[in-house]
């Protein structure tokens, strides 16, 4: 598969996983499924991801753990939380950013945005019969 195709596929997978994170979060708090509510929950994280995708050069190394996966993860969380605080989303008992939400979001988005890349690289290596070298930083191209 061409790098350009992987770039689009990686973008779609990332967006689907971020939306899934929002769906899971809303459902775990008993919030009804409504497109506008889902958008309100997801857009801060999607904005962070979009910034990360551009700044990390993700389209040229879409399956790279570093910088693509890690930058996508960190900026998705950081920008997403900043937007939520700035817009007053998720304020609980006067606290605009409960630490429990920050921890859960960081872990889940890390597993989602870095984890699927690790699995994809592993599957591609197994399928190609290539044994990974110790510390091999090369991304699938």
From TrEMBL:
Keywords: Membrane, Transmembrane, Transmembrane helix. It holds the Pfam family DUF3054. It comes from the Bacteria. InterPro entries: DUF3054 (IPR021414). The chain crosses the membrane at residues 7-24, 36-56, 63-87, 99-120. The keyword Repressor does not apply. This is DUF3054 domain-containing protein. It comes from Curtobacterium salicis.
